[in-house]
Amino acid sequence: MCGIVGYIGKRQAAPILLEGLHRLEYRGYDSAGIAVGNKGKLRIAKRKGRVRELDALEPHKFRGGQGIAHTRWATHGEPSDRNAHPHSDASGRYAVVHNGIVENAAALKAQLAARGCVFVSDTDTEVLAHLIALLDDGSPLETVVAEALRGVVGAYGVAVIDAERPDTLVVARNGSPIVLGIGDKEMFFASDPAALVRHTESVVHLDDGEIAAVRADGYQTRTLQGAITTKTPSTIPWKDEAFDKGAFSHFMRKEIGEQPEAVRRTLSGRLDSRFQTTHLGGLSLGARDLLDIRRVKILGCGAAYLSGRIGAHLIEQLARLPADAEPASEFRYRNAVIERDTLYIAVSQSGETFDTLAAVQEIKRKGGRIMGVVNVVGSTIARECGRGVYLHAGPEIAVVSTKTFTCTAVALALLAIHLGRLRDLSVANGARLIAALQALPERIAAILEREPEIAKLAERFEGVEHAFYVGRAAGHAVACEGALKLKEISYLHAEAYPASELKHGPLALIEPGTPTVVVLPRDDLSPSPIPASGRTGWMGYSRCLSWNPSSIRCCSTSRCSCSPITWPCSAAPTSTSRATWRSPSPSNEAADRRDDDSGPASTGPP
Q1: What is the pLDDT of residues 508-542, one digit of tens each?
Q2: Tens of pLDDT along 6-47?
Q3: Are the folds of 3-239 and 451-573+595-603 the same?
Q4: Which runs of consecutive H residues, i.e. helices, occur in 353-502?
Q5: Rounded CA gap, 410 and 418, in Å?
Q6: Can you identify the CATH homologous superfamily of domain 451-573+595-603?
C-alpha cells in the first residue's frame, strides 16, 4: 500500500510533502521518507516506522521548492531505514520513489553491479536510481527516465528528482496510479487524490505507459516511446473535509456511520417512479442493446468480488438472466471465453485495482461488452470501460471496504431492477423494489443506532480463535464478507460456507464455544439455513448467532426465550419454521409486516 507525493513550485516543498504523507497513512506502510532539492543538492530523510518517527529527523526544515516523498509497504527487503524510500544513486544526485514491483530487478542489478554500481539496500527501487544515473547523457530528464523504464518489466508508479535539474520532476505510471494536481504556478502529484485535495481540485490521471515532465508552470505527458499525449483535467469530486475523521475515533468507524448518506447518494436521481424502474445514465446502452444480453459476468477482487456475487444473485432473480461473479485475479490468468452477448461488469472501489484493470483490458481486446461500477470518478477502470455506474459513496479512507461494499450492492440492485423491468419484472414488483430501496438508508441508520447492543454482543467473542459464517444464496456472499472483515480487522481465523455445506466436512472443525454467524435475509430461503445453524447447537459445539433486518437473535430455536443480544442460549430446537424462528414480541411482528409490505423479500438488507 505504498504512497507517493510530489511538489514543485514557489512554496517550500517539505511541509506540503509531509502533510501529504500524513494524508496517505491510512493505506498502511512500514517506513517513510522525503527528498528535497535545493541549490544543486538533495537532502534526504527516511526512517522505518510511522511518519511521526520521520518527523523526528526534522525534514520540515529542508529548504527547497521541489521534492518527492513516500510511504513504503515492504516487498523487497525487510522494513528498515536503509530500505525506506527515497533511494539514490552513488553520487546522491538522483532520488527515486516507487510503488509496485520491478520484476527483472535481479537481472538489472547484476548488470549494474558488473559496471561498478554498489547497492546499499535490498530493494528493487534502488536499481532505478542507478540505472537513471548511468543512462543520463544530458538529455531532458524525462527522456532519460523513459529510456530507463523501457528496460523495466513490472508494475510501477515512479517519481524522480535530479538535484541538477531544479525545474523538473518526472513521474511515470504502469499499473500503479499517479495523479497530477494543477495549481497556480505550482504542480503536485500523488498516488492518491487524498494527498492533493487540500491544495487543488483540478487533476490529471496518467495512463499506463505514460510519463510526465512536471514543472511549476505546467506539465507535459508522452508515451515511453516519446509520442506526445493530450490530457484533459478533471475535478476531484470530494472536499477536503471528507478526508478528516471528524468526531470519529478512526476512519473505518466514520465510514460505517456514513453508510445511510452514502446509499442515498448512490440512489439519488436513479429511481424512476413513473415507470417503476431505475435510470442509469452512465450505462450508455439502450433497451434494444440490453435485450440482446444473454448472460452477465461480474469481476472484482476482495469485497468488490463479494458484492458482485450479491449483484449476480439479484440479476438472476429479478431479470432472469444467467449471472455469476468471478475473482478478476483468476479471470485474467485463464484464457476466458469472451461472448458477444455477455455483459461484463468490472467492480472496483478505487477504479485502479490492477487485476481488475487487466481483466477489463483483456475483455476489450477480445471485443467484449464491458461496463464499470466504481467509486472514484476519472479512475483508470472507469476510463477504460467508458460506461458504467459511479457509486458516489464518498472517499473511503479505511483500508477495509465498508460503505463502498454496501453502495456497490445497491448499484448492482439498481442494474438488476433496470434489466428486470425490460424483461419479466412487473410494474407492481418494480414499485415494491423501488419502495424498498427508498427505505434502505433509514433501515441502515436504525441498525447503526444499535451499536451499543452489537458491541456488547461482540464482547462475547473475546478470546475465541475461530469463527464460522453460513448463509444461502445472497446470504452466503454476505457471510463471506463478514468472515473477510473479521479476518482483516481482528486477525482471527474465520471461514464462510454455504449453509448446507456446513455438514459436509466443516462441521468437524467446530469446537466447543466456536461462534457461528448465520446470515438470514428475509426471503423465500430464510427458513432453510436454520437446520444447518441449529445442528451446531444440537451437537453442543457452537454458540450460534442469527441475523435478520429487525432482530439479532442468539439461536434459531422456537423455545428460545432470550431477548435479542442475549447469548448463549441452551434451549434445544424443536422447530425450524419461519414463524417460530421470529421473535414473538409485538414490535418485531409489526416490523415483519412492514417489511413484507415494503417490497419483495430479497431486497431487504442482510
Answers
A1: 777 777 888 888 877 666 555 555 555 544 344 44
A2: 999 999 999 999 999 998 887 778 999 999 999 999 999 999
A3: no
A4: 354-365, 380-385, 403-421, 427-448, 451-459, 474-490
A5: 12
A6: Glucose-6-phosphate isomerase like protein; domain 1 (3.40.50.10490)
